[in-house]
Write a structure and sequence with these properties.
The chain has 273 residues and is an alpha/beta fold. The protein has twelve helices and nine strands. Strand 6, helix 8 and strand 7 form a beta-alpha-beta unit. The longest helix has 25 residues. The protein binds ligand C2E and magnesium ion (3 copies). This is Bifunctional diguanylate cyclase/phosphodiesterase.
């Protein structure tokens, strides 16, 4: 923020920071009740596969319809949920909801359809996470094969060994693992080769300027590492056309579809186009 407006005085920054603190504190208090108040919901963003010419997955994205103020974007409340540990119960709620969603539409999904769920660093590092998530799936009667778990580079950076072990267990149980927002963090080739991953999701910042040589290079690298690639942030037809000529597993973005509610997504399933 400081960079974007050089005219602001130090005093103004201080006031803004204090205000942000108060705002965060209020969010924190309200977020702790959001689950029981039924203020959280999920939307699902379709992922398109060019070879199958259909939707081959959807990513579950959290929405908080905060009482009185309307929707708060995930960037504004996920960090608070992480700091306070609320992401743990919220994260299990998400898993359970996605299970229910799967059960509801099971007959409309066909292989290799997956539902993607974002897993925070805090969740992954929680002792017993693997057992807990498996217990939920078991009680809901859903196979781990339905799920693609998305983790980000920042999850891995501090405790590679522990994360490696957790991911191995999850993968052995049947989950697919994707590295989200690839290219925005600190992944090294070493990290990529030592993690048990199935997919890379190239961050939307790479597609924005249609940098074909760069995307082609990432695809070649992913291919060498036997990783499938999903490109995020496909917003325009030109981007879609360029990517259609390349060998990537999935395309995701507003051009394919906005994130959709339950009823809307049901209408897109099984549709070929
Ligand atoms: P993400 O996992 O990288 O999710 C993709 C984000 O890009 C979503 O933002 C989606 O709405 C947005 N997006 C999709 N297509 C386009 C496009 O064409 N252009 C642009 N500019 N954006 C696009 P959203 O829903 O605001 O979520 C933001 C982040 O919040 C997610 O990034 C994820 O890191 C986190 N998040 C969302 N739901 C959950 C959750 O259930 N658990 C956890 N731990 N994190 C979540
Ligand atoms: Mg994601
Ligand atoms: Mg992403
Ligand atoms: Mg993200």
């Amino acid at each position: 923020r400081a960079k974007s407006d050089g005219r602001k005085t130090h005093h103004v920054y201080e006031m803004e920071m204090k205000y942000e603190h108060v705002e965060n504190f209020i969010h924190e208090l309200e977020l702790s009740n959001a689950l029981e108040r039924g203020e959280l919901s999920l939307v699902y963003q379709p992922i398109y596969n060019y070879q199958f010419k259909r939707i081959i997955g959807s990513e579950a994205l959290l929405r908080w319809n905060r009482c009185g103020t309307g929707f708060i974007p995930p960037v504004d409340f996920i960090p608070i949920a992480e700091e306070t540990g609320l992401i743990i119960p919220i994260g299990y709620w998400v898993i359970r909801e996605v299970c229910k969603f799967w059960k509801q539409f099971e007959s409309s999904f066909s292989e290799p359809f997956k539902l993607s769920v974002n897993i925070s660093r805090v969740q992954l590092n929680e002792p017993g996470f693997v057992d807990s998530i498996l217990r939920i799936l078991d009680s809901e009667g859903v196979s781990p094969r339905v799920f693609e778990l998305e983790i980000t580079e920042s999850t891995v950076i501090h405790n590679l060994m522990a994360v490696q072990q957790t991911l191995r267990s999850l993968r052995a149980a049947g989950f697919t693992i994707a590295l989200d927002d690839f290219g925005t963090g600190y992944s090294s080739l070493n990290m990529l080769t030592s993690l048990p991953l199935d997919k890379l999701k190239i961050d939307k910042s790479f597609i924005r300027d249609l940098n074909e040589p760069l995307i082609t290079s990432i695809l070649m690298m992913a291919n060498a590492l036997k990783l499938e690639v999903i490109v995020e942030g496909v917003e325009e037809e030109a981007q879609f056309r360029m990517l259609a000529g390349l060998n990537c597993w999935g395309l995701q973005g507003y051009y394919i579809s906005m994130p959709l509610g339950h009823e809307q997504i049901a209408a897109t399933l099984g549709r070929d186009d």
